[in-house]
Amino acid sequence: MLFIIVKSTLKPGKAKVFYSLCPQFNAVALVGLPEKGISFNESEGLDETKEGIRIAASAGCRSLQENGITNISVETFEDAEAAAEGSHLGIWRFQEFKTKKENKPLPEIINYEGHSENEWKIGCIKADAQNVARRLMDMPSNKMTPTIFADVAEKLLGASGLEVNVYNKKWITDKKMESFLSVAKGSVEQPIFLEMKYTNDDTNKNPIVLIGKGITFDSGGISIKSSSAMDEMRADMGGAACVLATLLSVAELKLPINVVGLIPLCENMPSGSANRPGDIVTAMNGKTIQIDNTDAEGRLILADALCYAATLKPKFTLDIATLTGAMRVALGGAATGVFSNSTQLWNELYKAGTYTGDRVWRFPLWKYYTEQVTDFPAVDVNNVGKGKGGGSCTAAAFLKEFCPIGDWLHLDIASVMGPSDETPYLHKGMTGRPTRTLIQFLIQLSQQK
Questions:
Q1: Residue 90 contacts residue 61 (beta carbons within 8 Å)
Q2: Alpha-carbon distance 230 to 425, whole Å?
Q3: Comparing C-alpha atoms, which of 210, 183, 175 is closest to residue 317?
Q4: Which CATH architecture has domain 129-447?
């Protein structure tokens, strides 16, 4: 067993390993922590104490893991939740297809002396959920097709007691989701629409609806992407991965809320049957859409999912998607971009991001952007709109045309998808961000009841 302890003379986030210091442990990792008294930094929008503990716990566990240690006891550093998060996130890496001799085994991590056990458990649940999302996002597209993703959802969520409905192409057609089907028709992989239900609140039947973009591979279609880094588009189902992982945690935490997850799953491929620039389709709510760029496909599948969400009479709706490269340009990897018509919900989400260290930042939903996508003589909406710049804002304005009545949040996670990420406690690869922020957001809302 190994023990990680604070050493104030070390720089924050740095670790040193010592052997034979005491009979109880054959190795001890000493790590540096931030100075006491440092907490919320308003200008950074971050609880720096919590984030420092995550970084330190990760550094200590990694240093022991690199030395072949397989059982690690972790000091809680007076914040068991953050210590658990950093430990479990720091040691995980995607290595499913490496040969066994190259694998680095995942150590077993326990809470040293069992301090603050409930907080430790919450941290473990959050980190493990993000690791589930990381795995799903980093799986190659031939190993994570719409059908395989649906199978994973049935297995993981079904075991946690959720109702999982897997709807096929006929069901999608019967619902008149032509916008969704138009994207799917370019691929030999069949589209699937997932509906996942968690029910644990008898007082308010209206569910929170979470919608995740489930493009399991995005070539761009006829408006094909550059071949450079196209392999990263295996993670274009990052929104779907975050929704699945969040639902898994909601069930483990037994939150007293009702949540429905909706995931439209398909590939976006070029073929003789694929969408062509200039094609016009009709969404489930009857609005017509001109498809001027087939690489703006995420909004097409989300449009029908949002229309379907309206039939559920949601308490509020939140969609999450790797939607626009423009968001990566705007924010880099620092935060998720958020658009919302509810300042109250935005404030709760922002608070959650400061708590988890996985931050969010709000963008405008002005009429200016709506006119960019709706001011066309022949159709109701255009999938790219007119004018230059503001690509993330016009994408959000497009989605707004299909939203259920009531409160709505749209999260554009293209900025935090990966694989290059500077988060100290994440190995290089797809990130699973902002899963922990979504979980914390729902925890906060459940506590307000």
A1: yes
A2: 26
A3: 210
A4: 3-Layer(aba) Sandwich (3.40)
Let me know if the fold of 2-115 is the same as that of 129-447: no
Whether the upstream peptide bond of residue 404 has omega within 30° of 0, thus cis, is: no
For the chain, the structural domain boundaries read 2-115, 129-447
Active site residue 205: no
CATH code: domain 2-115 is: 3.40.220.10
Measured from the Cβ of residue 253, the count of other Cβ atoms closer than 10 Å reads 18
Q: What is the pTM for the complete model shown?
A: 0.96
Q: For the chain, what is the total number of helices (H) and then of strands (E)? A: 13, 19
Distance CA 237, CA 252 (A): 23
Residue 328 falls in the annotated catalytic set: no
The catalytically annotated residue of 299, 328, 433, 436 is 299
Please identify which of the residues 197, 225, 287, 351 carries the catalytic annotation. Answer: 225
Q: What is the pLDDT of residues 360-409, one digit of tens each?
A: 999 999 999 999 999 999 999 999 999 899 999 999 999 999 999 999 99
Q: How far apart are CA 99 and CA 102, in angstroms?
A: 6
User: Taking 80 as the threshold, does the pLDDT of residue 6 lie above it?
Assistant: no
**Helices 391-400 and 367-374: crossing angle, nearest 10°?**
80
Residue among 225, 416, 233 at smallest CA distance from 320: 416
